[in-house]
Amino acid sequence: MKNLLILFICFGFLTACNSVKEYQSSSKPITHELWDTLVKTHVSEAGAVDYKGFIKDKAKLQNYLNLLSSAHPNKANWTRDERLAYWLNAYNAFTVKLILDYYPVSSIKDIKSGIPFVNTVWDIKFIKIEGAEYDLNNIEHGIIRPEFKEPRIHFAANCAAISCPRLRNEAYTADKLDKQLDEQARYFLRNKGKNIITPQEVKLSKILKWYSGDFAEYGGVRKFINDFGPQSVSSSVEIKYLDYLWPLNNQDINNYERPKE
Question: Is residue 95 part of a domain?
Fold first, then answer.
């Protein structure tokens, strides 16, 4: 019972349970050109991923992962946007690597490790960056969310599922990051397969429910969807949430129909 209580506390407060001590590094910013080439080749504008194509380019992907592993971001030599662009690209690239390691799979959640119902695919420690070892939870909840306090990241980090934000077919870079994050947020909220936003009805992705606290400084979820969604939503309209769909974000997502709820 005690272990279950700890599990539920961790689920509710992911940042605290995945806190990451800042790694001391003297590295300099890297280029993300390799990742840019890969996603332009193997990811559609809508975010459908050609995993078989990635497998053919596995050596090039590994070269990029090696580059990521050679340079840990630090505040001494990297700007804020250089660090955030790095971590978003790293999260997405290592997620693709994880899928390829177990491909073919129908869902990222089919990848198991550790203790059932306690450890998930996001707890697999397979990411090494200089002298630090991470899992995907560490990167998202221990670094990106607490360090940058940027709600738009929830539409840029891709978890390889249909209901996730699209995997952008362009690398994130410091010089374009603000524009890229704006585009990701608008694209996601205006996607009728992931959100239903009309004057009479609002059904949102559960991402905005799970991480509602991250939108507090912005003014809350409603203000965010009013600014980035297809239209403003009256305060009198109740916000509801759609079921999250976990099938893999492969090329079939362009023809996938959401089950009627």
Answer: yes
Q: How many domains in the chain? A: 1
Q: Kindly state the tokens that stand for 65.
A: 């992962």
253 in any annotated domain: no
Task: Give the range of the structural domain holding residue 174, as residue numbers without chain letter.
Answer: 27-192
β-pair partners for 107:
247
153 falls within a domain? yes
Where would I find the beta strands (DSSP E) of the chain? 127-129, 132-134, 196-197, 202-204, 239-241
Mean pLDDT of all residues in 170-197 = 97
Which parts of 93-236 are beta strand (E)? 127-129, 132-134, 196-197, 202-204
CB 173 within 8 A of CB 85: yes
| Confidence at residue 6, expressed as pLDDT on a 0 to 100 scale | 38
State how far the Cα of 231 lies from the Cα of 200, in Å rounded to an integer. 11
Q: Closest by alpha carbon to 30, among 1, 64, 6?
A: 64
Tokens 């592993």 locate to: 69
Cα–Cα distance measured from residue 86 to residue 146, given in angstroms and rounded to the nearest whole number: 16
Round to whole Å and give the CA distance between 78 and 10: 31
Per DSSP, 248 falls in state B
CA-CA distance, 63 to 196, in Å (whole number)?
40
pTM of the model: 0.90
The model's pLDDT over 220-250, given as tens digits with 9 standing for 90+, comes to 999 999 999 999 999 999 999 999 999 999 9
**Residues 96, 54: contact at Cβ < 8 Å?**
yes
What is the structure's pLDDT at 15?
Answer: 40
